[in-house]
Amino acid sequence: MPPARRRRRDAVSADESIPSSAAGLLAHAATLIPEAAATAASLKAPPQLKELVHSLPANHQLLLSLPQALALAISSDPNAGAASTSDSPPPTPPRAAGILLHLLLTHPSHPPRWDDILRPLALLHDRLVLLAIADPPLASLAVACFELAWRADAPGRDALVAQTLPYLVAQALTASSSARPVLRRLFALRDALPLLDYADESIFDFKMLLLRCFVSPLFLKAEEGRKFLALVLGVSEGTAREGLELIKAQVGMTGVKRAAVVAYGEVVFRAWKDGGWGQGGDRGGFPAGSGGSCGACRKQGGGKGGQEDPVGVASSNVRHNALHLLLDLFPLEDPDVTKDVNDPLLEKQFFLLDKLLMDDCPEIRTVAVEGICRVLNQYWEVVPSPMISKFLRKIVDDMSKDSCNEVRLSTLNGLIYLLDNPHSHDILKVLLPRLGDMVSDSALSVRVAAVDLLLAIRDLRSFQYTKVIGLDTLLSSLANDHPRIAQKITKLLIPSYFPSKLTPKEVCARCIALIKRSPAAGARFCEFVLSEGSSPRSIIETIKVSVTLALSQTGLNSEQTDGLIIASINLIKSLSDEGCSGLAALREFFTNEKLKLILKTVASEGARAALLTIAPVVLPDDLSVLHEVCMDIVVNAGMISKQEECQETVLAAHKLIFLSGWSDELFEALTDILQSKACHFAEIYGLEPLTYPVAASRRKKGKSLKKTPASDHASRKGSSISKVSNDELATASGTAWQINEILKVVEMRDAFLQSSHSETAFTSLKVICKVYIEQCLHLPSLDLAPLLAYLSLATNSVLPDVDQTGISCSENPSSKLSQKGKASLKKHKQEAVSQGNAVKGTVTLIMLGTSILKFIVDTTSIQLVNDDKIRCLKFASSYIKYAVLSIKKHQEQSSPFKGDDLKDALMLIRSSFTYAAKLLHLVLRSSTELSNPPEDAFFLANQLLDLVPSIGAFVGSRFAFRFISALKQWLPVLILGLVSCWLIGPHNEIATDFCHFGDSGLPLWITAMAKNELLDAAESGQDEQRERVDEGEDSPSSRKLAEMMVMLLKKGNPRILDFVGGVLLCTLKMALQGSEFGIVLGVTRFVCVRLLGNNSELEALQLTRESLRENFFEIDRYVRDELADDDDSKQQLESAKALIRSVLTDL
């Protein structure tokens, strides 16, 4: 080493030449570095400062503390010095910090400590925009630091690209002859491009910079620039679309240089080849006439065509891109060669299109169908006739029946587009009738497109749309399909059945002819004629003639008569909605007597409902003529809750009654019916006599309410009591359904709740619901309308004088019956069993319980249940347990659930599970540190988990796995329910005996899980206990449940894992007491192997460790005292002890 160099190093290593702190080094560097205004060139470290920093060893305290000092210097405010005290050091200029940071990154002997350096780098990155304006040399040095971190794959380097990329792109765009080095640096950061969110509005400026690159000659001339542009096309769909539009505009300009076209072709080819652009959404291709662009793409891809066929590759994305490129460039021809050379190339394109038309990927088939139709529309003369026939036959015969909805839709859309070319009409006349079934397609979008195809055909003189799809098929769709379809078919038929150029009389004749041919379709047709531009004058004439013809009934059947009336009503509705002036003439036409005559003439409930609906329009001032009719409809409604047509009539009557001011009479009529049935039911079943409030406003003083005669039950108290007839149950259900519908309409609900009849209705519904609950076991079917009305009325009203606890969701309803009622109920149950209705009755009862559970959840959600949450949890737990035991009972007897009964029961249990889990969630969510969750949450969580092994054991694993899919989203709630009493609230201290299962025994899910563990252990050869576990005891659904729980617990809070481990281990004492030593081993194995295996936080699981320790000594006592009867049991206990020792090594 030269002496001078040695002397300099010796001088540097002397203590007096090295600053004592990082702040001193920053101050020393500030004296050596010029100010920002003093130079405009690049910023470099002074040689003496560089030698000083690079000579320090890696473990020198100055280097260790320097990153933190740099972070403070970079983040400090340069204006803070003026406001600081005189003793504070002045702020350090950021130049010194930037140079020292660069020296740390380029230290020759030791790599940077990225964990320390990332902080000052991030701070410098955040100030890059300001530095680029105030101090460009320092900004350039900062970007160099960021590039060093990126190339070194430093942890957290992703945070250093958001400002670096725009800086380098701007530098490349503004550079002149020195652009290539900047482009190389920019291309080196290519992997950072996808890290940015190009959908965010804050990145708009950077996107504009990227788009400017596509028109920059600097990027097109350099290879790195062209590669970078290809990458830009792949960062986002929006960027790709805008970039391709710019390329198309540049290529299509007059006088564009061939070199630029070739460069753009290379960019597009690279982007397509890499598969990063064009993988979805709209794509802007090149115009087919751009010969230069086509030639450029062929030049770039021609040399590789023999190496890899993009249409035949395995990747659907590549095939998708190839199809779009092929369609955008079709016809791909070389203008510099002869036709003989281009023909094989054209045939190759046809072959590829045909191949892609039958591709396995539905997205590719969708694009291929519409693309081929577009090609045929634009280049019909170029495509040979045999190829046209081949394409269209495949599209019509095969693609129209494709399993994918989008492919069938693209078939119709493509054919609609192809109809614009007159040359296609001759062949399409032959092919389109094969598409007649598509108007009945399962997808609404396809049916809409099928009618759109007919509308396109209707405007062509050479076509008749009825030869494509028959008129009867169209009328069927018009009558029964979606309103969008019906309106389009109406538009299609208007020129034939409601033409605007004919006189109103001729129009009326045609419309009536349609109604006679198909009454339902004709009535639906009249619903949309006005919106499609028909004349109001013709519509009014049609209404008058139709009503007159319907009343005459000359040569008409009942269906045609109702069709004429409904059609007229639809026309009146349309005129009323549009506010047309012809309504006055109609009001003169519809006299009171005529309206009553029409009501007597119509036969269907739909026609009656429609008439009541338009009555306020045609008789706005006098509705009294309909008073008696409406009240008869209300009072005589029987099985209305299960008949939709009758429901429409009754609801229309309700509305008309309310508008006419007769609501109090309506309420009284319904309440009288409910009261009569309630008194009759109470007398039959021996319930206590009911007292009702007297509505003084409607009744004379002392006058009793009207009751249905109860035969002579009172005189036959000692004889056997017959059960309620089906007609009486239907009447009560229909009336209750009407009450429930009234409560759904805000105005009617308010009026009913404010009336004196609501209390009577509530009391009557309470009695009826009691009887319905008792009857549900021995009736093949039961209407839930009374229960729903009772629950709805209880929710929407506050009735202080009525006892609302008569029906308790957590009590046995039969406890309220008298001895005579119980004896009658017992007899009825025996009769039901003898009649084979036990299964139906159980399904009905499960349906009833599900409805009650839903009501509980709804009222809890709106915080109507506050103090009764424990009772709600008890009911949910008891009901879930009952449902499972009921299925088990029937499966073990000679009357198991089968077919639809089994599906209905399982569907109801699945719904009940969801409601119960939501109830548990609501209770846990309302618990706070001051209010401990009720213990019943623990029992409900166990009951819900028990459903998995229960369903698997009784009806098979297939149904159990379907149930698990519903359980998955609620599993976190169930786990919290298991440990909530000790995880939430003031009494969450840890104790090893905190879990008590009462008299219910071990939960089924824990037992099934333990048995699965024994089977797994036997199969893996860890013990010889397989003969102690039957093959049939394997529960795949319980195994799946255990796997889900383990995965969730290991990802979650260790404290929850600790408590769950404690819950499982507390079952060991019960298993030991019951001599279920296999369960002891199975649970121990699950906790030690599944939950605690490879757990590095075992020390934090205090409860689990203490429970393991306590159970170890208890198991050891059973072994020492020989409480285990046989050798196999002893072996199981010894295996359990060994598993605990593997976790607690201090035992």
UniProtKB/TrEMBL annotation:
Protein origin, superkingdom: Eukaryota
Renumbered ranges of HEAT repeats: 431-467
GO cellular component entries: condensin complex; nucleus
Any one of the GO BP annotations: mitotic sister chromatid segregation
Chain intervals for the UniProt region annotation (Disordered): 701-721
Coiled coil (residue ranges): none
SUPFAM superfamilies listed in its UniProt record: ARM repeat (SSF48371)
Protein name according to UniProt: Condensin-2 complex subunit G2
Organism encoding this protein: Eleusine coracana subsp. coracana
